[in-house]
DNA sequence: AGTGAAACGACCGTAGA
DNA sequence: TCTACGGTCGTTTCACT
């Protein structure tokens, strides 16, 4: 066997400058043709294709569609800091199943879990927080940070 | 004039079920061919392409490469909550220019700004926090929430 | 907004270095 | 891991609805 499926942290992958350049190209436009990318980074079309395939199959990179919540009418976003008791993994799983929550992370610090919520309006945010988050087992207290302005959002590591 | 550039919130766009289905397809694989997507959603290849073009040109959707920080050796991530004085927009701009920070949002609540940082190790995190974040003008105090486990990360709104 | 068809260009497998 | 190349399939444009 050469490469078994893993549940957790694989060994760190090293990206050379060419792969970083390819990722930069695909970050600007995920549908740019391999031939175009090849011209930009100085490689043949087939070589670019092979590298992209390796990067995606190893899980280092993904090419995906992302949407802008604001433009779709989801105008209320917030980060919820949660102080919990008991097994925080179970709480995180429960939070992850709520569709209005797009981001859940277990943390060390004065919050045990951070969850980002995306809502259409204040009423939806209020009922989400009260009826479906604060009512979950293990939630001791929450603190809400309503988003006023998203300043930066960057998706690519290892390319700087 | 019909459609001038805007700095802030455009009018909410409505997505019909077909466009949502197209976005779902492209979220699973941003390089899936328009012909394949057409088969999946019951539309001709040309129609899919037109809709994708409209979605991307209007800024509602983007197809981009995203990378996994963990697999690239950036094993320390944290959310920094910042209490600030003065103009928080200037602080947010300054934070956005730090390459190790991938996410900055102005918030209402007990923090004025939230910033997500991605580092290779603890030393990098410590020096980033002390030398380059806490030293910025207007930072009164910070609180750090070190990530233990990322449970959920979803990129697409309007498709649920 | 969507379809269909023909010309063009991109993609994929394989061979060879 | 790269280049070269040929067959196949996807994309583009355009006329039509």
From TrEMBL, chains A, B:
Entry keyword Membrane: no
Alphabetic keyword roster: DNA-binding, Transcription, Transcription regulation
Domain HTH asnC-type: 15-75
Protein name: Lrp/AsnC family transcriptional regulator
Source organism (scientific name): Agromyces salentinus
Origin organism lineage: Bacteria, Bacillati, Actinomycetota, Actinomycetes, Micrococcales
